Amino acid sequence: MNISIQNIKPESLVLKYGTPLYLYDAAVIDRQIERMRNAFKGLPHRINYAAKALTNIAVLRHMKSRGLGLDVVSVNELRLGLECGFEPDEILFTSNSITMQEVKEAVELGVNVNIDSLSLLERFGEAYRGAKPCSIRLKLDPLIESHTKSAEWHKFSKFGIHHSKIGRVAEISRKYDLKIVGLHVHNSSAFLDVPVYLATADAMFEIAKKFNGLKFIDFGGGITIPFQPDEKAIDVDNLGEKLTQKTNSFYREYGERPEIWFEPGRFLVSECGWLLTRVTVIKENEKALFAGTDTGFNHLLRPALYGSWHEIVNLSNPTGKKRRYHITGNMCETDFLARNRELSEIREGDLLAVKNAGAYGSCMASNYNSRVRPAEVMIRGGKAYLIKKKETYEDLLRNQVEVDW
Length: 405
What we know:
Structural class: alpha/beta
Number of domains: 2
Number of helices: 13
CATH architecture of the largest domain: Alpha-Beta Barrel
Number of strands: 18
CATH superfamily of the largest domain: Alanine racemase
């Protein structure tokens, strides 16, 4: 069994760039973009890539080349977007526990600004009154009570202005003659399905009727991808069909046709990414078989942070006899990439691919244990491109200051 990406074998890239190595397939990104475009083709819509998922400038430029907008959550992400060719009006800057100074920087750079709290809305009103538009980020209650995880998440979510405060939003808007041009809702892909998404649409459209002249209604992210082989994900085509029906009904009542915006991050880039790692040691005791690797949660934090499941493939022995392993990293911590996972027999020196590592892999990586971050390679149009160099020891020292005590 030969495993390749666009006819390029991962082993050949490892020989050139070493391990660990982040590897991205641009064709998968393009496939996901087209899935969304086809699903929502019946709506005036815009797709803003959520840059936080994978912020490499080559990836941002690829998104720009495909006609996407950009969703950013910091001024530096915003600047990277401009650096990569996005026009200011193609960028939405969403606030979250930020200072008014950051908002002012975003306004000066000319992008769309999304307000996340009443206090920030008040300060925005004092600073700009009706001279600059803004949008409002909302927090909705759990919309289908049977989703217990969703209910728990909403209980502790810090994101957005609670929908019960919409009257206060209107008061501040009138006080400062604010121009509110958009409404936005934060969705979590961890427990969304089509009924929850449509319930979100119903709630958002009811709130939208309280505002005149909206240019867009933003449903955020929330469209997930399957991680495990038997895991169900949102049927995007079914969602598109039903959301289109609801939106057209809203348009008839509202009298205008604000654009419907989406902010996919994980949906676009998770499946494009593999983290390649070399097995450094096999350890066996009475109850467990461990395969230690040259990576860890310093390069893929999600399994440790969220308990997330990532498919792992033994590229060196893909058809070997199945055995169960704990796949561990080289951190000086309890550091599992997978527990009790059935894989083709692993030997020291084998090359493993940890899949679904495109989203929140490299962008959440760290130098814990003073280990450097890996190189990043993108395969685009059948060619492999180095898009980020592997760090060096000198990079660890770069911003440290020697003090003469």
